[in-house]
Model the fold of this input.
Amino acid sequence: MAAVDLNADLGEGYGAWSLGDDEALLGTVTSANVACGFHAGDPSTIRRTCLSAARSSVRIGAQVSYPDLAGFGRRAMSIPFEELRDLVLYQLGALDGFAQVAGTEVAYVKPHGALYHACWDDPVSARAVVEAAIEYDPSLVILGPAGSMLLAEAERIGLEQAEEVFADRAYTADGHLVPRSEPGAVLHDLDSVVARVLRAVGEGEIEAVDGTVVRTAVRSICVHSDTPDAVGLARGVRSALEDAGIGVYPFC
Done:
């Protein structure tokens, strides 16, 4: 692969609380998954994040979530299709307002946390997200895991899809993420993270925790901003990609 995108979850502070070094990450990544206020992010945080992303020429994506500030969007919820579609649409409109003020736009959609996992296998959740996206802007790209219902629904409805791989998360043999409650779910060692990324991009495969080789497509690599030393991991990943002759550019 000649080029790949590098994304991070950003704007995840709320009120007096901050999470991660957004400014440093915006100097490294090419796409920003911006919290839209449901799992994190308040209006002023969203505004600052959009302005900083625009200054850094980083593409903005809507990181839509269940309405779960207390649980950081990582708790499963059962929400009817119509309500979930409208919750996603609401978040898209909120983020895009601040993106427009910053002189840019929302380019893609990526679910967060428990909603991301629901969209992996549940066609109803996946359809709610992609229908909100196409109603809002048919040019939006859907970012998610290869082989997921999310990308299948996006293809069915006519939206562009982009596959991502997580640099800092362990995978199961069936290609899903190891639950955060289990030991080793989050990767911290830079050498291991870099090796995973280069293998995914160069060979289209990831090694699961049990040694199983999982085939995958990848247009974007994700580093979580709340992973310890996220900035160091992101910088290390970008340097390794460029040293390997792989360009790092936005996927949309």
